[in-house]
Write a structure and sequence with these properties.
Blueprint lengths: L5 H13 L1 E4 L2 E4 L7 H11 L21 H4 L9 H10 L23 H12 L7 H5 L18 H14 L29 H9 L1 H4 L5 E6 L5 E9 L3 E8 L2 E8 L13 E7 L5 H4 L2 H11 L4
Antiparallel strand pairs: 1-2, 3-4, 3-7, 4-5, 5-6
C-alpha cells in the first residue's frame, strides 16, 4: 500500500482547511462549512458602522441602532426568518422601509462583497440579540445584485465617516438638520435625508454660500413692530390677523405669534415684513472647516438619498 509522505499529508490538510485545492492547474473552491462571525464584525465596521451603531445608548447615527437586530429582525417581516430579513436588508436595503421613511441606506452597499462576505455580516448581526445557526445561514440564497459601475457610489468609508463626524461634531449640522424624523425635526432647517440626490457642486455651495442655495420656506424674515423693535426669524405661519415666527435666543427656539395690529406700516399702509437676503444658516464654514473636512462632509451628504 502506498503511503503519502507526511509533508504531503500536511499540505493536503492545510488546503482542505482553507477550502481550496489545486486541480488541473486551477483552484477549486469548496463551500464554507461555518460562517466567520469575526470577519463579519470587521466588514460591519468597514461598511456599516458609519451609519449604524451596535451600542443601544448611541445617538446621532444616520441609521437605526442595530444593538439587538438579531432579535428585532425576527419580528420585522411576518413569516420571514431573522437571517433572511437581515440578508434582504443588505442586498435590497430599501425593501423594508415603512411608509414615509426616507431611503437613506446606499443601494449599492453590497458592491464588492462576495457570498462569504455577506453571510459573515449576517452571521455577526445575528449574534446581536439573536441565536446564529451556521446551517441556517449557509442555506440562505445569496443573490448579490449587479451594480452599474457608472452608478456605484464611491464607498470611501473612511472619508464618509470623517464627514459624519464633521456633521455631528465640528460643523454642528445636526443642530438644525437632525438625521432622524423626530417631531419638529425640520423646524430650524430643511430635511437633509435626501441630500445625496444633489450633485457635489451644489452641496459644496450650500455649505459655503447658503444664501445662494437656501430652501424656500426657510428664509429669515424681519418684522418691524410699531414700537420700533425688530423681530427676526423663520416665518412659519401667516394669517389675516397675525404672523408666527420661529425665533431663537440664548434660551433656545420659540414660536412667537405677532398680531398684525402690532406691526409697523409703510407708506402704503402695508405691514413692514421683509424677507432677508441672508440665509439662517451660518456663513462661517469656510473659516471653520478645512478643505479636507468640507470634502468629507460632502462625501457623507452624498450617502443620504
Amino acid at each position: 500500500m502506498f503511503k503519502a509522505p507526511l509533508p504531503l499529508i500536511g499540505v493536503l490538510l492545510a488546503l482542505a482547511l482553507v477550502g481550496t485545492i489545486w486541480v488541473g492547474g486551477s483552484a477549486a473552491h469548496f463551500p464554507l462549512t461555518t460562517v466567520d462571525f469575526d470577519r463579519g464584525r470587521q466588514l460591519f465596521q468597514q461598511r456599516c458602522a458609519t451609519c449604524h451603531s451596535v451600542d443601544p445608548q448611541a445617538l446621532g447615527s444616520a441609521g437605526p441602532s442595530l444593538a439587538r437586530i438579531g432579535e428585532v429582525a425576527a419580528h420585522r417581516a411576518p413569516g420571514m426568518p431573522a437571517e433572511q430579513f437581515i440578508l434582504e436588508s443588505i442586498l435590497q436595503p430599501n425593501s423594508f422601509r415603512t411608509a414615509g421613511e426616507q431611503a437613506v441606506m446606499p443601494a449599492n452597499i453590497s458592491a464588492g462583497l462576495d457570498r462569504d462576505d455577506v453571510l459573515s455580516i449576517v452571521g455577526y448581526l445575528m449574534t446581536l440579540g439573536g441565536t446564529p445557526d451556521h446551517q441556517r445561514l449557509l442555506a440562505l440564497p445569496v443573490d448579490i445584485p449587479a451594480h452599474d459601475t457608472e452608478d456605484v457610489r464611491d464607498l470611501n468609508l473612511a472619508r464618509v465617516e470623517a464627514g459624519r463626524r464633521v456633521y455631528l461634531e465640528k460643523g454642528q449640522c445636526a443642530t438644525c438638520h437632525p438625521l432622524q424624523e423626530l417631531p419638529g425635526f425640520d423646524l430650524r432647517g430643511p430635511n437633509l435625508l435626501t441630500a445625496g440626490l444633489h450633485d457635489e457642486t451644489y452641496l459644496r455651495e450650500a455649505i459655503l454660500d447658503a444664501s445662494r442655495t437656501h430652501t424656500s420656506g426657510y428664509e429669515l424674515w424681519n418684522v418691524l413692530l410699531a414700537d420700533g423693535r425688530v423681530v427676526n426669524g423663520r416665518l412659519v405661519q401667516r394669517s389675516e390677523e397675525s404672523l408666527t415666527l420661529l425665533t431663537e435666543s440664548s434660551a433656545g427656539l420659540k414660536l412667537q405669534a405677532i398680531a398684525l395690529d402690532d406691526v409697523a406700516r409703510d407708506a402704503d399702509d402695508e405691514p413692514v415684513v421683509v424677507a432677508s437676503s441672508t440665509s439662517a444658516m451660518p456663513d462661517r464654514y469656510q473659516d471653520v472647516l478645512s478643505d479636507e473636512e468640507i470634502d468629507s462632509l460632502v462625501a457623507f451628504l452624498k450617502t443620504l438619498d
